[in-house]
Amino acid sequence: MTQNPFGGEGGFDMSALLQQAQQMQEQLMSAQARLAEAEVEGTVAGGAVTVTVSGTGDLLGVQIRAGEINGSDADDLSDLGDMIVAAWRDAKARADALAGEQLGPLTGGLGDLAGGAGDSAGEIPGGGQPFGFGGPPSGSGGSPGLGG
C-alpha cells in the first residue's frame, strides 16, 4: 500500500515521525551518557564530610576532613554516619536537579517513567497504585482494584 491512509497533502507522514523519534532517542541517550560521566558533590558541617556521586546518583566517593571526628568516641562515630547520609542526600538532590536540567526538555514531563528525571519524585501515576487501580471499596474487604 503506497497511498497515504490519511489523505493527500498534509496527511500523516510515518517516516517523518520515525525520524523524529530516532533523533529524540539519540538526544536522550547522549544526555544520559553525559549524566553518567558527571560528578556532583554534597557537603555537610562546613566541608567536614563530602560525598561525590555521579549524575545518575551512583556513589563515587566519601571524603572526611582530618581532625573533624574522634574515631574512639562512639558519639562522634554515630554523628559521622549521620553526616555521611546527609552529605549523600545533598549530593543526590544536586544530581537529581542536574538530571532534571539535562533530561527534562527531552522527556517532556514523563517523570520517573523516563529514568528518574522530572517532578514526580518517585510517585506511581494513578495515586500510588499500580495501573491507577485504587484500593478496595470502603468496607468491602476485597482485593485492591477488583471491586470485591
How would you characterize the overall build of this protein?
This protein is rod-shaped. The protein has a domain of 71 residues: Ybab, Chain: A (2-Layer Sandwich), CATH 3.30.1310.10. A three-stranded antiparallel β-sheet has the order 1-2-3. α1 packs antiparallel against α2. It is 39% helix and 12% strand. It has 148 residues and is α+β, with helices and mostly antiparallel strands. It is built from two helices and three strands. β2 and β3 form a beta hairpin. The C terminus is likely disordered.
Topology at a glance:
Blueprint: H1 14-37, E1 39-44, E2 49-54, E3 59-64, H2 74-107
Antiparallel strand pairs: 1-2, 2-3
Helix pairs in contact: 1-2
Average pLDDT figure: 73
Shape: rod-shaped
Q: Under the CATH scheme, which class of the domain at 35-105?
A: Alpha Beta
Number of helices: 2
> Topology as H/E string?
HEEEH
Q: Could you name the CATH topology of the domain at 35-105?
A: Ybab, Chain: A
Helix proportion: 25-40%
Structural class: alpha+beta
For the sheet with most strands, the description reads: 3 strands, antiparallel
* Proper CATH architecture of the domain at 35-105: 2-Layer Sandwich
Distance between the termini: 49 Å
CATH superfamily of the domain at 35-105: Nucleoid-associated protein YbaB-like domain
| Low-pLDDT segments | 112-148
Number of beta-strand segments: 3
* Largest sheet strand order: 1-2-3
Q: If you compute it from the alpha carbons, what radius of gyration comes out, rounded to the nearest whole angstrom? A: 24 Å
